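Here is the promised in-class demo. Please do not try to memorize the tokens; focus on the logic of going from shape to residues.
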């Protein structure tokens, strides 16, 4: 058995023993295991065999050979990688070639990288951009990269926007990122949401957790049409976006609903609220992060399966709806999630860490709550989890 310790020993022997070991193997799995176990390569590593493996019939061997060539501390033979790229058909190998060339940080590779930003694979384009950004002050590089702001792929556009077009969103007079206004703290407001939001300053809210009215499914929410209902929600979440601090969160609890039929000669109507609301949120500056499923006990929901249990006709199958969605969004920003955390002092971050026993999946099993006064109230446990996972103390 060829152990990692044995491979490490041969790697440092300086006698080309690794090359001899690989040439003696006929099993592709063993060859890949050796290549994947090489780790960091010595300065005097004899690498000729790696270039020979670029012609191996198995793509995984070529991939691992390219990865190791990328570890040669800028001493790799670029022309060999260029040649392989031109004839390579495996997508993963092509991406790794760009990565290895990028790690060389050689200005002579710029012309080749300029050609690869026209590739059809957006991941290759992003890898080439990453390699070229090493020379970000180079005018030639800027002239090639800036036009990609109009690229068809959103990931490419986002990278270019962040590097060349993004501006500091911090406004004069705005509170520090970690703070908000005292009059907003521990405040309960009973008012029309659109009217109340007018009094909330820009960039002042860290987290919004809400369950919008379920279109005409409850007596407290009557709208003239579904289109009018979606327009109302869009306006609310536009305002919510305005008052939310950069990079902070919105969690929307909702689910498809059924409007009962008028009579037995008519059909009921089912509306996919989460799916119709999502594009409106994204269009207005919210970045989608996660979908969490709130799973309720079957005994707590309205029974839709009763009729099917009697007739068993397949077209009449209507399962009991035991789930709702918690759709997690973030106010769009070029800053990473960690930027939010780094805005706080060490003690606050430590005190905000989530205790053991947290949920590891996106399915939350929580019993609903019922109330004689309000027909649709939040379970306290649902609120606790959302706040615990999305706020610093």
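The designed amino acids, position by position:
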């Amino acid at each position: 058995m060829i152990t990692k310790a044995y491979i490490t020993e041969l790697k440092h022997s300086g006698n080309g023993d690794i090359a001899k070991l690989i040439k003696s193997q006929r099993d592709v799995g063993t060859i890949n295991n050796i290549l994947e176990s090489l780790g960091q390569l010595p300065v005097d590593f004899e690498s000729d065999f790696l270039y020979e493996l670029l012609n191996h019939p198995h793509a995984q061997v070529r991939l691992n050979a390219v990865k190791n060539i990328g570890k040669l501390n800028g001493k790799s033979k670029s022309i060999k990688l260029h040649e392989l790229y031109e004839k390579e058909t495996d997508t993963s190998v092509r991406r790794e070639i760009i990565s290895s060339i990028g790690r060389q940080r050689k200005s002579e590779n710029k012309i080749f990288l300029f050609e690869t930003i026209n590739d059809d694979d957006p991941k290759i384009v992003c890898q080439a951009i990453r390699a070229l950004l090493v020379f970000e002050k180079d005018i030639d590089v800027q002239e090639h990269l800036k036009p990609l702001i109009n690229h068809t792929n959103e990931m490419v556009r986002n990278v270019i926007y962040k590097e060349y077009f993004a501006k500091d969103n911090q406004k004069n007079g705005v509170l520090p990122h970690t703070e908000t206004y005292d009059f907003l703290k521990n405040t309960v407001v009973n008012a029309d949401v659109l009217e109340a939001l007018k009094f909330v300053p820009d960039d002042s809210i860290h987290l919004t957790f809400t369950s919008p009215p379920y279109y005409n499914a409850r007596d407290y929410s009557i709208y003239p049409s579904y289109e009018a209902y979606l327009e109302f929600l869009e306006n609310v979440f536009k305002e919510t976006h305005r008052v939310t601090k950069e990079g902070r969160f919105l969690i929307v609890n909702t689910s498809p609903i059924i409007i009962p039929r008028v009579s037995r000669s008519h059909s009921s109507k089912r509306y996919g609220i989460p799916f119709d609301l999502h594009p409106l949120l994204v269009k207005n500056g919210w970045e989608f992060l996660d979908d969490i499923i709130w799973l309720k006990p079957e005994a707590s929901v309205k029974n839709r399966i009763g009729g099917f249990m009697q007739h068993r006709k397949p077209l009449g199958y209507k399962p009991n709806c035991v789930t709702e969605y918690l759709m997690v969004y973030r106010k769009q920003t070029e800053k990473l999630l960690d930027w939010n955390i780094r805005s706080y002092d060490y003690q606050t971050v430590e005190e905000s860490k989530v205790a053991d026993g947290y949920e590891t999946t996106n399915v939350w099993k929580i019993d609903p709550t019922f109330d004689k006064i309000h027909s649709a109230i939040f379970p306290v446990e649902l609120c606790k989890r959302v706040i615990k996972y999305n706020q610093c103390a």
